[in-house]
Each structure stands twice: as C-alpha cells, then as structure tokens.
Amino acid sequence: MTWDKVDTVLLDAIADGAFPGAVYLVTSREEVLAEGALVRQTYATDAPPVRTDAMYDLASLTKVVVATTLAMIAHDRGLLDLDAPVTRHIPEFAGGGRERVTARHLLTHSSGLRAWRPFYETCRSKGDVLRAICRVEPEATPGTQAVYSDLGILLMGEILERLWNLEIAVMARREVLDPLGMRDTMYRPPASLLARIPPTEVRETWRKGLIHGEVHDENTAAIGGVAPHAGLFGTARDLGVFGRMMLNRGMHEGRRLIAGETVDLFTRR
C-alpha cells in the first residue's frame, strides 16, 4: 500500500492556507506504516522546515493521553469507581445539583456542565479554577446530554491528583509517558527544544503576540502550563506509540499497561 494520497491531501490543505506544515504517521498494531513531514513551521517563506521529530502543542489530546489514560489505570487498580459521585473525592463540589455528577459523567462529557469558561480572566492557580468550577451549576441533568467539557476533565484531573496525592504531570510521566517510552511528550518543554516546536498562532488578546513553545489554551497557561485537559507537547512518533498500545488493548512491547477489558470499556460507544 502507498500513502501518496496523504501527502496530496495535506499539501492541498497547506496550499489553501489551512496550516503551514504538518507531520503525519500511520501505524498498525505492529509497526509504523508511513511517516512524513511537509513544508514549513510557519507561513514565512524562510521559516524552518517541519521535521518528523517536530513537537506540536497537542491541545485536547492531553485529555486522551493524560486524563483518560490515568483514569483507566486508576479504575484498573480499584481506586476509581466510575459511578461514584464526584463529591466522594471533591466534597466542595456539593450543591446546586452537582451531587448527581459521577466520574463516568465527567469522562463521557455528560455531566451537564458547560463546555468552557474563561477562567484565565480571574484565576491564577488550580485552586482558583477549582473553586470557580464548584460554583458552576449544571445546565442539564447529568447523563442526559453530551457536551464536550473542559470543566469536566479539569474535575477529573483533580480527582486523580487526590487519589494519587501527586501532581498530574508527575502521574503522567510515571504511569503513562515513561512506561511507553514517550520521551518527546511533555508539559512545559524547555527553551532548548524551541527549534523543534512549530508556533501555534498569533494572539490579538490577553497574551498578545506569537504563541511559541507555550501552551495555547488560555486556562492552562493561566495556571502554569499544566492541566489534565491541555498542555502536552509531543511528536507524531510518540502518539503512534500510544495509538499502538490502545490498538493492542493496553499492551506495549509485551508489558500490560491497562487491562484489555478496561480499554474496551473506555472506548465503546
């Protein structure tokens, strides 16, 4: 099989101005089938070329690689009851109808909480954000509607930190990234890696100017660049490793990271 059409589709999108460059990777359960890097890091004609080891802001893939995967591991170990109320772990979440929200609701984006709030305008710490979320009333009965919600994943991150008594970045490195050998995936990449990181965008408000090497998500930036819903930077190669682990139902190079039944549970519709 050839993958020339992948190049064609991406080059057409680049020509249309959708993005200035791209990295792609195709993997099976066993191996990488195709990999490529196209054009430049920015729209400037003298911009550096994109390489296959480019580290992009992974944005909401952080929800998958960090929050959801740590939730799977916590469920495996008997730490996380998916149907227990969030208030079991975060008592201050009580009130306003929030007592009915469960961990399962958070992970399936069916908590009834709104999608997003501009916490960065008033919050300067994780504690500030948590207190703000604990004042947000559900807009729908939990379990009745699906609304993709950063608020829900922020709560899941807080639950995980309380279960392990560790910061989310430490848990991610210890439980997911290091076991999978994802050495090019990290929060807050150092300045020494900046040449490998394509800029994300130019902002006209709040953080004005080029966003380069720091998280694009404003709420994550406001609390230091680390969150369960955003903040990771990484490569296509590392994401391919993660994808193979999921395709193999939690197995990585002969070692089990997550129970197969748990992967099935978390990925079924």
Automatic annotation (TrEMBL):
Record-linked InterPro entries: Beta-lactam-related (IPR001466), Beta-lactam/transpept-like (IPR012338), Diverse_Enzym_Activities (IPR050789)
Gene3D superfamilies linked to this entry: DD-peptidase/beta-lactamase superfamily (3.40.710.10)
Pfam families (UniProt xref): Beta-lactamase
GO MF term list: hydrolase activity
Alphabetical keyword list: Hydrolase
Residue intervals of the Beta-lactamase-related domain: 14-250
Record carries keyword Protein transport: no
Keyword match Hydrolase: yes
PANTHER family: BETA-LACTAMASE-RELATED, BETA-LACTAMASE-RELATED DOMAIN-CONTAINING PROTEIN
Name this polypeptide is given: Beta-lactamase-related domain-containing protein
